[in-house]
Amino acid sequence: MASADGSDAVLRAVSGVDGSAAGEADAAATAAWDREHVWHPYASVPPSVPVHVVRRARGVRITLADGRELIDGMSSWWAAIHGYGHPRLDAAVTAQLGDMAHVMFGGLTHAPAVRLARTLAELTGLPKVFFADSGSVAVEVAIKMALQYGAPRGRTRLMTVRGGYHGDTFGAMAVCDPVNGMHHLFSGVLPAHVFASEPPREPSEEYRRELERTVARHAHELAAIIVEPIVQGAGGMRFYHPDHLRTLRKLADEYGILLIADEIATGFGRTGEMFGCDHAGVRPDIMCVGKALTGGYLTMAATLCTEEVARGVGVLMHGPTFMANPLAAAVAQASLDLLAERPWREEVRRIEQGLAEGLTPARRLPGVRDVRVFGAIGVIETEEPVDVARVQEVVMARGVWLRPFNRLIYTMPPYPIGEDDLAAVTSAMVAAAREL
């Protein structure tokens, strides 16, 4: 007997029925039930922007339930750096399933977590590793570390810069841009931290003096400075000069303040270096990593710190249920091994060149404020907020998947994307900007 709410059709659709009239009907039922009952990121129920049912993802393409193939220009929000369905990563998950999918990390440990912790410590130069289950939680843990470390000296505030984004949980929201960020609804209940202005793209003596004044004024109460190194991600896709990060490191050392690097978006090669901090030649006291950590397979993040911070913190009062999940740890290790073996620097340089060439025509379009490229990140910034549904309609008609926001039409493609596919992505972006 069919269910009254259409859930039988939904179950058939997600079980893989496709390629027939019945399959199309089941996909339509999935989309209809989703629309009325399921929240999507930064959306209402029902959403104002169409949601598309995905049947399959392989390589750099996603296949919709209606059979359309789209080049993924987003790497699933910057996480799937190797593309989809990589045999090495598939094998890592499958092999780990033969031993265990999960076991609690309280009082227990396992080889996948220890191997991954050792790899991350070697990559970052930070020997203490706390596993979290999302980027936002990794930032929460970093904030807790800093506040526990600073509490004996009465240091209970953080400093950051405007234009940043660090996640959607409460501690993370408090250090996102307080004016132009997406969390203004909660401004009345978030802790009030210290903000300097947005860091500029070029070296600036004036900005250096502003940072010096701000830190000097608040040093007595600052436990840490938290920033996204070199690239401000979801806060506006802005790039800034490494000098400003070096200035913050110097000031943190001078005043005994911790420096937290939120590398969740910038880590694992996206900017052309392994980490954003590498552009400035600095090492933070605390680092957050996530997104690309597992190659886009499973949710996992980590917060790493120095020996000194770990000693100062002592018992860290945090413990996610799925902390150090063995499946996620195994595929994360496989992803990092794969990254070490592949010519990712050359791939990112090739993408950077392709983005720069392909997006150049957008510079001449009316309504375009800026076009910028850094590593495997390409951005068209418009004068006014974009119509997300219209942009997606335009780019999908050209066989491309993008997810614009605010005034940004941008891409962060998977590293193995080919030249023709990359050209299709940039062409679709320019077409969308022209349409607007």
UniProtKB/TrEMBL annotation:
The protein's GO terms of the molecular function aspect are:
adenosylmethionine-8-amino-7-oxononanoate transaminase activity; pyridoxal phosphate binding
Record's Pfam families?
Aminotran_3
Domain of life according to the entry: Bacteria
| Recorded catalytic activity of this chain's protein | (8S)-8-amino-7-oxononanoate + S-adenosyl-L-methionine = S-adenosyl-4-methylsulfanyl-2-oxobutanoate + (7R,8S)-7,8-diammoniononanoate
**Where is this chain's protein located in or outside the cell?**
Cytoplasm
Residues annotated with N6-(pyridoxal phosphate)lysine modification: 291
Pathway as given in its UniProt record: Cofactor biosynthesis; biotin biosynthesis; 7,8-diaminononanoate from 8-amino-7-oxononanoate (SAM route): step 1/1
Chief location bin: cytoplasm
Keywords noted in UniProt: Aminotransferase, Biotin biosynthesis, Cytoplasm, Pyridoxal phosphate, S-adenosyl-L-methionine, Transferase
Tell me which residues are marked as the site Participates in the substrate recognition with KAPA and in a stacking interaction with the adenine ring of SAM. Answer: 42
Q: List its EC numbers.
A: 2.6.1.62
Residues holding pyridoxal 5'-phosphate: 135-136, 262, 320-321
The cofactors required by this protein are: pyridoxal 5'-phosphate
Can you cite an annotated GO cellular component? cytoplasm
**Which regions form coiled coils?**
none
* GO biological-process terms attached to the record: biotin biosynthetic process
- Can you tell me which residues bind substrate? 77, 165, 291, 319, 403
* Residues making up the signal peptide according to the UniProt record: none
> What does the subunit comment say?
Homodimer.
**HAMAP family with a match to the protein in the record:** BioA (MF_00834)
Q: What does this protein do?
A: Catalyzes the transfer of the alpha-amino group from S-adenosyl-L-methionine (SAM) to 7-keto-8-aminopelargonic acid (KAPA) to form 7,8-diaminopelargonic acid (DAPA). It is the only aminotransferase known to utilize SAM as an amino donor.
UniProt lists the family membership as follows:
Belongs to the class-III pyridoxal-phosphate-dependent aminotransferase family. BioA subfamily.
Q: What is this protein called?
A: Adenosylmethionine-8-amino-7-oxononanoate aminotransferase
What is the originating organism of this protein?
A: Thermostaphylospora chromogena
Q: Show the taxonomic lineage.
A: Bacteria, Bacillati, Actinomycetota, Actinomycetes, Streptosporangiales
